[in-house]
Write a structure and sequence with these properties.
The chain is α/β, with parallel strands linked by helices and 292 residues long. 38% of the residues lie in helices and 26% in strands.
Amino acid sequence: MSSRFKHTAKSWMPPALVGLARRLVTAIRQERPEWEYVPEGWARAQSDAKIKGWNVESVLEAYKARWPAFVHQLEGTAPLGISPESPTPEQSDLAFHNTLMIFAYALALATRTKNAISMLDWGGGIGHYYLIGKTLVPGLDIDYHCKDTPALIEYGKKLFPQAHFCADESCLARRYDFVLASTSLHYSEDWPAVLAGLARATDGYLLVTQLPVTSKSPSFVFVQRPYRYGYNTEYLGWCLNQTEFLARAQAAEMELLREFLIGHQIPIAHAPGPCEYRAFLFRPRTSHVNRR
């Protein structure tokens, strides 16, 4: 429902009918697939008002509601299998556990001879990976920089006043020991330009993880309807042809060190090919001095 309709409905409908209307809207949403192929690509965003992207208040509210459970699990000894987006705090997700272990491996490489590193978290939300990094490598000094939407970074600044948050690409003006793009690169329409920018900002290692890829078709666009996570929005994303993605990384002078399986396939309705999450760890092929 739009906020205007909600306000109008509440003014004249009995509470029981308001509740029924909400349940009907939820049921209608659930009838549509969470993931669906978009033949017209990014042009869909111009014609579909439901596609609001990530900069919406409901995403922040969902993150805030799940933050205590997320912090609690990091403080314990249980397997690290809870996603910041998990609708059930007790859920142990193998795919997210794999994601964190991949991150731990990449972070270990980036810090093996250092007590302090600089890190860019592209699409880092409210700073989840800052806390994860401090947990996985105790005592590590992380000069943490996070790029995300205005709604998220303002709250991130309150959680971690010692860190750096930005809502634009100014963070790419410098270089970092470790650059992370987790569940984020494919939400950029011009993803090759973003990948090139991340590569230029990388002095040590670049980890692109939770990236939807396919080997059976050209790259294609899908819409995600994440209402089950409490997000009152829809957004577009790429499922990237893996060969094309790796070719773009090579063109950005990045060397692939390791490819990882996440263990999660995306059931995109009507898609031209299967899509799954994978992770890729890169480092610059040549020094930045020679790349200028």
